[in-house]
Amino acid sequence: MTSARTTLVIGATGTTGSRTAARLSAAGRRVRAAGRRATPVPGADAVRFDWYDPATHGDALDGADRVYLVPPIGDPEPASVMLPFLRQARSAGVRRAILLSSSAIPAGGPAVGEVHRALPGLFDEWAVLRPSWFMQNFTGAHTHADGIREHGVIRTATGKGRVGFVDADDIAAVAVHALTDEQAPDTDLILTGPEALSHDDVAAIVTEVTGRPVAHRHLAYDDMRDRLAAVIPPEFATMLADMDRAIAEGDEDRTTDTVRRVTGRPPNGFRAVAERELTARATREGIQ
Q: What is the rounded CA–CA span in Å between residue 25 and residue 17?
């Protein structure tokens, strides 16, 4: 692969997109950092991109031969905007597409599952990254992290179910390999951390790391769905509540060796990520 090749990173200021763009730039790759506001990204060319504004798509694709795809957030049917864009991308010369999906959504499943199913028919070189739930949900900009900071509470309908939470840095590391290795994965990759934890476990670790008490509040499925529906579309709220119920039933109680196999190093554990990110945040906010 030559340095002249260009990667379009959609969602380049988001949790995985920002990390992927930064790693690509640090490796000397040309990056077009796409977002709705064309926010400057160090080492990359910023370009405006909006899934719902086709007028932005052509400029974003200009010169790109590969793309990292972060679906539109909160859209229960993203295929309606993503598939026309992907056909345009193929016509514009993109030959490799790496899609961010979820361990909870198989090919042909709800939401981005339809895009997953279509991807191999659109590109000869492809991969679908299916990470478990992000560790950054508890340390960054997320409802769980807000609940921890503001009330010392994590609210879910996951019960005692366990999840192989994964570090967004590890997702980005796999994404960069998928984008730049000579051979594309041409498959889906389920990404997890090194251990499966319940939300009770997460609350206990955050308590130990920060010194501030955090509890996991167990909600019924209906209560969780209704809380979500108060702030996001009902269809998407139902899908997320369904995912919580699946966790409670054991569907996410697994770990994989994908991060180690692709990157050559073990995935980061939750305690290490919590110490790294919560300590840094506390220092920035002057609360240590």
A: 12
Burial of residue 183, with CB atoms counted within 10 A of its CB: 0-12 exposed, 13-18 middle, 19 or more buried: exposed
Helix (H, G, I), strand (E, B) or coil at 252: coil
With contact defined as beta carbons under 8 Å apart, do 160 and 200 qualify? Answer: yes
Instruction: Write the pLDDT tens digit of every residue in 44-78.
Output: 999 999 999 999 999 999 999 999 999 999 898 99
Residue with tokens 């993109």: 94
How many other β-carbons are positioned within 10 Å of the β-carbon of residue 151? 12
Rounded-to-integer distance, Cα 266 and Cα 262, Å:
10
User: What is the rounded (10 degree) CA torsion for 7, 13, 14, 15?
Assistant: 90
Residue 154: Cβ within 10 Å count: 23
Q: For the chain, what is the radius of gyration of the CA atoms? A: 19
Report the amino acid identity of residue 50. D
7, 177, 236, 251 from 114: Cα distances, Å: 23, 24, 15, 20
Alpha-carbon gap, residue 155 to 220, rounded angstroms: 10
CB atoms within 10 A of CB 282: 15
163 closest CA partner among 273, 241, 255: 255
Task: Please state, in angstroms and rounded to a whole number, the distance separating the CA atoms of residues 262 and 253.
Answer: 21
127 has which bridge partners?
Answer: 98
pLDDT tens, 22-48? Answer: 999 999 999 999 999 999 999 999 999
Distance CA(144)–CA(227), nearest Å, equals: 13
CB contact at 8 A, 259 and 99: no
SS3 category, 116: helix
